[in-house]
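Tokens for chain A. Residues wanted.
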């Protein structure tokens, strides 16, 4: 029997209610599977819908956002789940690490108690036992002198230490799926590397599936088996990270790869994708990337490209590549 995906996102669309009464479609036609223990990177420029898509999985979308489609965790559609059920799933089955740990942490509670809390409420541990385990978790995320640090408050810690606490909280109940939304963006480079190391070790040790949201292809390359590229709320390309980065097929992915700092163009300047992501109200007809794509034809500007399988494990959206590969 073939293994079922742990997470299966089917035709997810998310629109947002605007203050003027209009509804703006943001994420469209998003489908992706994630197996137990697999790591998936979601990459794209700012505003491409990465955070909304990952918040939908953990049921933490802002009130103005309206999701449709299916988000199946072990076959259960989370978009239909009650708030009580989502509370059970959060922490227990899905853990989340946020970009800015300070906003996710309670300033009035010691970090040890914030880690212990989930163990008390979800696992029924006594506070004494949960606090003991919290110290072990702090040790696992490499906080030195963990026993003493458990009694400190978030504001007494550095940004990197707070993010370790964020990881310890998300890890406490050993969820099957961990979602990390730009977990290192707010940190300086050396701390970033340590945090990624810790996350990598833990994901492998506990065989957790990971969705890592980042605009940084270097981070994705280091951490993720597979990569999904989003642009303006649409998936542009998906496949094994190594293949997507070595031979990107979609012109947008090619632009992202070319813009990675190690790739300096012949005249010594960094390559970049001309223009910016257009507002969702101003997306061009046809392919949403056509107004920035240097390879776009009149057809690209008129016909919305479908999602097609380029090979067994690679899929993308691009009319020109599709016609070339499939001969349509
Ligand atoms: N609460 C909200 N109200 C209105 N629009 C929103 C809201 N949250 C997100 N959006 C819209 O959805 C788009 C996608 O947002 P999202 O945060 O998912 O992008 P992102 O790819 O994660 O960007 P970043 O890397 O900057 O976090 C935004 O550009 C914005 O237009």
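Reply:
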């Amino acid at each position: 029997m073939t293994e079922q995906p742990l997470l299966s996102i089917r035709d997810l669309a998310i629109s947002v209610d605007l203050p003027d009464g209009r509804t703006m479609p943001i994420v469209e036609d998003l489908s992706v599977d994630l197996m137990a223990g697999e790591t998936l990177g979601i990459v794209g420029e700012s505003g491409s819908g990465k955070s909304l898509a990952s918040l939908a999985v953990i049921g933490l979308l802002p009130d103005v956002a309206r999701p449709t489609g299916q988000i199946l965790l072990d076959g259960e559609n989370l978009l239909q789940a009650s708030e009580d059920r989502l509370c059970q799933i959060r922490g227990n089955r899905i853990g989340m690490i946020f970009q800015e740990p300070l906003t996710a942490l309670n300033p009035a509670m010691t970090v040890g108690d914030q880690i212990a809390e989930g163990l008390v409420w979800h696992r029924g541990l006594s506070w004494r036992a949960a606090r003991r385990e919290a110290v072990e978790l702090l040790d696992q995320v490499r906080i030195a002198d963990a026993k003493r640090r458990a009694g400190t408050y978030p504001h007494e810690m550095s940004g990197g230490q707070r993010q370790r606490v964020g990881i310890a909280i998300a890890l406490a109940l050993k969820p099957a799926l961990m979602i990390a939304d730009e977990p290192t963006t707010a940190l300086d480079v050396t701390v970033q590397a340590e945090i990624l190391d810790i996350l990598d070790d833990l994901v492998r040790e506990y065989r957790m599936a990971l969705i890592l949201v980042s605009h940084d292809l270097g981070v994705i390359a280091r951490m993720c088996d597979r990569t999904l590229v989003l642009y303006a709320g649409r998936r542009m390309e998906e496949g094994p990270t190594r293949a997507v980065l070595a031979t990107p097929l979609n012109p947008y992915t090619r632009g992202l790869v070319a813009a990675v700092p190690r790739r300096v163009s012949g005249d010594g300047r960094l390559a970049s994708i001309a223009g910016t992501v257009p507002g969702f109200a101003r997306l061009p007809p046809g392919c949403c990337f056509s107004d920035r794509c240097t390879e776009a034809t009149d057809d690209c500007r008129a016909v919305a490209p479908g999602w097609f399988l380029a090979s067994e494990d690679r899929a993308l959206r691009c009319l020109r590549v599709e016609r070339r590969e499939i001969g349509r």
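The chain has a mean pLDDT of 90. The CA atoms of residues 141 and 214 lie 21 Å apart.
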